[in-house]
Amino acid sequence: MDHKKTSIRTTALAALVLGAVAAPAFSAPVDQATYNGFKIYKQQRCETCHGATGEGSAAFPNLLNSLKNLSKDQFKEVVLKGRNAMPPFEANKKVAEGIDDLYTYIKGRSDGTVPAGELEKPQ
Ligand code: HEC
Prior knowledge:
Blueprint: H1 3-22, H2 32-43, H3 46-50, H4 63-69, H5 72-81, H6 93-97, H7 99-111
Helix pairs in contact: 2-7, 4-7
Bound molecules: heme C.
Heme C binds next to helix 3, helix 4 and helix 5.
């Protein structure tokens, strides 16, 4: 038996197994913008009206549907200026400064590329 060959094969197998263990299990990798948007969505209370998943309820629009129709500018307009029972957020620094990230997060939810619920902080 060629001992050298076997040991190389064993090393390769070990690397494969270790690699599989090191990879995060089933976590959706998101970029920094999406993660920031998610934090703003939660912390600035969008979720109290539009729901933790963004899907709204009888009284509040489903933002996953809304973002299939609203342009980014229309999104910014309604969030910053408000509309009817939607409060204006332009005086909220976190929202006003993070509006692009907020859009990225909700757009990702709408497109189905960002899962509902907690997101892992990007490395
Ligand atoms: C107090 C409850 C409340 C909060 C908090 C709230 N919204 Fe709204 N939002 C509403 C209501 C009600 C509407 C529907 C307004 C209307 O009828 O014109 C709405 C509408 C919207 C729309 C437009 C939807 C469409 O289809 O045109 C967007 C986008 C939106 N909200 C995003 C947000 C974001 C982002 C936040 C957090 C920064 C937020 N909302 C916080 C109640 C809320």
